[in-house]
Amino acid sequence: MPAGLDPALVAQLVAQARGQGVQLSGEGGLLAQLTKIVLESALDGELTDHLGYDRHDPAGANSGNSRNGSRSKTVLTDVGPVEIDVPRDRAGSFEPAIVKKRQRRLSGVEDLVLSLSAKGLTTGEISAHLAEVYGAQVSKQTISTITDRVMEGMAEWQNRPLDPVYPVVFLDAINVKIRDGKVANRPVYLALAVTAEGTRDILGLWVGDGGEGAKFWLQVCTEMKNRGVEDILMAVCDGLKGLPDAIEQVWPRTVVQTCVIHLLRNSFRYAARQDWDAVAKALRPVYTAPTEAAATERWLEFAEAWGARYPAIVRLWENAWAEFTPFLAFDAEIRRVICSTNAIESVNARIRRAVRARGHFPNETAALKCIYLAVMSLDPTGQGRKRWVIRWKGALNAFDVAFDGRLTAGRK
């Protein structure tokens, strides 16, 4: 039990409540009554500090200000709605801090609303949930007001300064449905970086105006550079045509790696379903080859065996070859973490769950708000951060050697 609480007194209160048939939780329950007592005591203490004298103290007789009764208000707390009496002063200069003027919710409720919104629940669903579970009547407009405040923090987050160098940045986009006259897919671009310390950092979110395009990625990369990113050792992407050129314009020394998983998935699009297993087995020696020369030999063997039946697969790999082979120059520890965009795909999966729950959004701002909340709630316990550091620790040491100390030099 926390220091300062008398276990015997707590047991007495619980026993008394049970004897009187009072519930522990819920409206009018013991927890609500205790919350009322604690809040009113704290408010009375604040007023005493404001006036400079205790209740009934003769020192306040000619002080120029005094207590002036109280007014009732209901605040929504973690234990449900609680009606409290807020003390007043005659001068009207008292500004309570624990429950501010016009404040109707304590912080825990706002956190709950934001958490539910991050999971994709609509304002109506959140309102119904609070009413069902907590017995609290919170309007959809109030919930919208709470979540709208997030946009202020999002603007600051989106424009924050970035690190001068990142070992790896994963680039990807997901489509969301936005109703702008009519419902249509709009791409939301994400950049996820691995920091020099091995932690994950989502650098920003950007809503495009059409299909996922290299031209828009150039704007994204330029913005990141303007926010302080001077060097990226490797950029991992899904093979979008023109994206390597966009990256090279901003960071000429960055090595661009095409996601091997995307290459395999795209290969299956050109193959009959009954040949998927055989094609996958034939391609495996290519991307697991010990060197680029060995990968080329295995590729020629694949092209000879399957080229006549599936020429489109051959063209796909040949067009992507320059961005497919960079990871083959590194040892297994680096290969393991850069051969695919799995790192950002896991983030996308969380975002898609929130987006699917909403269906479509009335505008771009609503979509960004939902995605931003989902991103901010990715690692509530901090365990994900620890796993990232463990996963990347060895690879980052190898990165600094492989890239001639650029990682260390960029941090100075």
Automatic annotation (TrEMBL):
Stretch list, region Disordered:
50-73
This protein's UniProt keywords: DNA recombination, DNA-binding, Transposable element, Transposition
Q: Which domain of life is it from?
A: Bacteria
Q: Where is the composition biased (Low complexity)?
A: 59-72
Q: Name the InterPro entries on file.
A: Transposase_mutator
* Record keyword DNA-binding present: yes
Q: Which family does it belong to?
A: Belongs to the transposase mutator family.
- PANTHER family recorded for this chain? MUTATOR FAMILY TRANSPOSASE, TRANSPOSASE FOR INSERTION SEQUENCE ELEMENT IS1081
Briefly, what is this protein's role?
Required for the transposition of the insertion element.
NCBIfam families in the cross-refs: transpos_IS256
The name of this protein is Mutator family transposase
Question: What organism does this protein naturally occur in?
Answer: Frankia umida
